[in-house]
Every structure is written in structure tokens, then in C-alpha cells.
Amino acid sequence: MIIDNLKTPYYAVVFSTILTDNVEGYEAIANKMELLAKKQPGYLGVESARNSIGVTVSYWSSLEAITAWKNNVEHIEARELGRSKWYKKYRLRICKVEREYGFEN
Amino acid sequence: MIIDNLKTPYYAVVFSTILTDNVEGYEAIANKMELLAKKQPGYLGVESARNSIGVTVSYWSSLEAITAWKNNVEHIEARELGRSKWYKKYRLRICKVEREYGFEN
User: Fold this and answer.
1) Do A89 and B104 count as a contact with CB atoms less than 8 A apart?
2) DSSP secondary-structure letter at A33?
3) What is the rounded CA–CA span in Å between residue B11 and residue A13?
4) What's the pTM?
5) Does residue A48 sit at the B interface (CB-CB below 8 Å)?
6) How many folded domains does chain B comprise?
7) Is A2's CB within 8 Å of B90's CB?
8) What is the value of ipTM here, to two decimals?
């Protein structure tokens, strides 16, 4: 899904990942984290795709909302599991969305 | 590929797309644009994935570099072709990358 009802300025977290060969359990926890993220204050939406790498961009109303989600206990547990089992590599970027454009046909 | 050698602050362009059913010619032009982008001043890298949607994040040293790429003549032509044939919907977000973290196992 593409998110198209947001007003700048807001924040984007770009989470780019390469998975290991052992992805048992990954999808269940990823889906659980997506549902949990949706319940957090300041969560605005997510856009995600994966083929050789995964690129997931979540949108948030403020840096405080991002920090609160980072410190969520279930999220911390999932992240530790991810580092020990599923992620070969990742980068996480915290960005301020300054402008946006759209097109729909 | 995941880009991991960048120093904040820099800029990210998050380009999220849904394609039409008519993607003939799309991949060739998309690849050509990726090669052309790499030659632009201020281009720092790209991360991209597609399944039900496409999420492509390109990284740039400045807003001026992003504007120059937006105004590149071949890029304008490709964008017009994209709007007329390949894109059902897109959002393009211009973001300032403020912080980043990484993990590698």
C-alpha cells in the first residue's frame, strides 16, 4: 500500500535489510511488529517491498514517536531475535520528510 | 545492495510506486535511469525493492543535486513515459537524513 494522506513535515524511518538463509519465524514476527507499530502514538503508515533486499519505510509524526517505538519492549525483543537469527545486515535511517509529490492515474 | 558509507546530514528521495499491467519497456528505462542517476553530481547511492509495490530510496548530497536530477532532460522524458504508460500511482518524498544506525553480522 502507498500512503498518500500525510502533511509535511513528518518523519520517515528507512529500514533496509538483507536476511540470512535462516528465515524461519521471521515473517510471523515481522507481521506482529507491523500490527504493533500501527498501535503506537504518532504512527502514520508504512510502505514495504522485498526481493533481493528489503526496503521498509515507516512514517511517524515526530522524533519522540520514533524513539518511543524504538524503546517498546516487544519491539526490543524482536530486534534482538532479528540480530541473532534473521538479519545479515541492515541500515536504519531517520529522516525528516520536507516535501512530497504524487501521481495517480 | 545496501549503502553504508554515508555521513549525515544528506538527503533521501523515497519513491514508492504501483505499476500498471502494461510494463513493456519499463525495466529497460528504469535500468537506464539508474545508470544515468549514478553519473549525476551529488548522487550517493540507491536501495530498491519491488513486489506488490516498489520502494526505491536514492541518496543525494544536497537538495540542489536532487533538483538538478529532477530537471535532467532524459529523466524528464522517462518520467513522462512512466506517467503515460507504467505508473498507476506514485509518491515521491524528499527527506533529510538526520541519523542512522547499522548492523552487520
Assistant:
1) yes
2) H
3) 13
4) 0.97
5) yes
6) 1
7) yes
8) 0.96
Q: What is the CATH number of the domain that holds B57?
A: 3.30.70.100
A1 falls within a domain: no
Cis bond upstream, residue A41 (ω within 30): no
β-pairing, A54-60 with A43-50? Answer: antiparallel
Nearest to A18 among B2, B55, B97 (CB): B2
Task: State whether residue B30 sits within 8 Å of chain A by CB.
Answer: no
pLDDT tens digits along A52-72: 999 999 999 999 999 999 999
Report residue A93 as a C-alpha cell. 535511517
Domain extent at residue B35: 10-97
Position A44 in a domain: yes
CA dihedral B87→B89→B94→B99, nearest 10 degrees, is -100
pLDDT digits (tens, 9 = 90+) for A11-60: 999 999 999 999 999 999 999 999 999 999 999 999 999 999 999 999 99
Residue B103 domain-assigned?
no
Is A49 touching B (CB cutoff 8 A)? yes
* Residue A50 dihedral angles phi and psi, to the nearest 5°: -145, 130
Q: Is residue B105 part of a domain?
A: no
Q: How many residues does chain B have?
A: 105
